[in-house]
Amino acid sequence: MSLTNFRHDPLSLALDPNDAQSIGVWRDEMDRAFPPLDIVPLGTSHFHAQYRSAGSADLQLSDIKASPHSVHRSPGIITGQSFEFYKLSYQVSGSGTMTQGDRELELTPGTITVYDTARQYDLHFDEDFRFIVAMFPKSALDLPAGLAGEFAAYPLDGTTGTGAVLSTYLMGLVDSLDHLAKPSGERLARTGLDLITSVLSNELDDRLDRNDLGRSLLIEVTYYINEHLQDWKLSPESIAAAHFISTRHLYNVFKSAGVSVAQWIKQRRLTEARRDLADPVLAHASVGQIAHKWCFDDAGYFSRVFREVFDISPSEWRTRAQFSNVHSLRA
Q1: Which of the two ends of the chain, N or C, has the fewest CB atoms closer than 10 A to its terminal CB?
Q2: CA distance 37 to 29
Q3: H helix or E strand, kind and range, residue 310
Q4: DSSP-assigned letter for residue 205
Q5: Between vectors from CA 287 to CA 222 and to CA 303, what angle results, nearest 5°?
């Protein structure tokens, strides 16, 4: 799975528990929906599952109900940028465990957790369960991977605060899942991704060691960059000046996030341009106009770096998004 082949058409699948082939059908479908997984049913020969899914350009949302089984994401099938995604799950009913790295957590109703598809992880469910899975490219988050990655296999509360807002939104979207594949889906997905970023950012603030000034500054600067992406004067120098620090200090702060300041600014602008190109509300704007909106004054350079990041040209990406929108309107 790559950034360019999220499923846009809603899909609904219900397996017959009396059909011995059901588990094979389930494995095949999960491999199409997510990066490849090893799936093993637990304690029953009558495997049953229900699956509903739809996707926008940046967000695939799945509603999964199934009998007990385990899921293993093997390191042997984790290669390349094709799997640069995060998955966020919200446990609706039933319980299980999730393990990634040295963290293991209980998945009980109301639990939200994030996992990195580029790393090994395991899910284990001993009882019937239902959970909602939101999968999105890492670049779709407004947080550097060095910050967002801290939440792998870390429990978040989906019953209070911003976590409750996010879980309510996800459940509402699941109830009208086909809207994700319609022209309005890009806006719905953007709202969802903004909520996910807010939940993670708030959690970072709550968890932050107040003596960790570098981490605190990184979060503050990230907010500042997101608010000034359309400012042509935005630069490491202007950011450092706005925060009364040296550019050297700024570079060192971003080093811990695994990306340079300039790279992060470019990545955020490309992500916003990608969203705009897929947005039917902006279909009247040319590729060049959208590039200029996000501070790319050279169309050739914009096209080149867009392809480098997303493996598709801006025009091809827009055409694909428009085709999906027209198809969904006819469905």
Answers
A1: C
A2: 10
A3: helix 299-310
A4: H
A5: 70
Give the H/E segment covering residue 325: helix 314-330
- pLDDT at residue 50 greater than cutoff 90: no
Q: What is the mean pLDDT of the chain?
A: 83
Beta-bridged to residue 129, according to DSSP, are: 66
User: Could you tell me how far CA 240 lies from the centroid of its own chain?
Assistant: 29
Structure token digits, residue 83: 């799997």
**Beta strands of the chain (E only): which ranges?**
11-14, 38-41, 49-55, 60-66, 69-73, 85-93, 96-100, 103-107, 111-116, 121-125, 129-137, 156-157
Rounded CA-CA distance 184/202 in Å is 27
C-alpha span between 31 and 34 (Å, rounded): 5
Percent of the residues in the chain that have a pLDDT greater than 70, as a whole number: 87
- Provide the 10 A C-beta neighbour count for residue 323: 11
Distance CA 181, CA 8 (A): 5
Q: How far apart are CA 40 and CA 124, in angstroms?
A: 10
- The neighbour count for residue 242, using CB atoms within 10 Å, is 12
Domains recognised in the chain with CATH numbers: 11-207 (2.60.120.10), 213-330 (1.10.10.60)
Specify which of 47-56, 70-79, 120-129, 183-192 reaches the highest per-range mean pLDDT: 120-129
The single residue listed with the structure tokens 């490849």 is: 36
Which of 18-22, 98-102, 256-260 has the lowest average pLDDT? 18-22
Global confidence as pTM = 0.81
Q: What is the total residue count of the chain? A: 331
DSSP codes of every residue in 238-296: HHHHHTT--HHHHHHHHHTTTS-HHHHHHHHHHHHHHHHHH-GGGTTS-HHHHHHHTT-
Q: Which amino acid is at 178?
A: D
C-alpha–C-alpha distance, residues 86 and 168, integer Å: 20
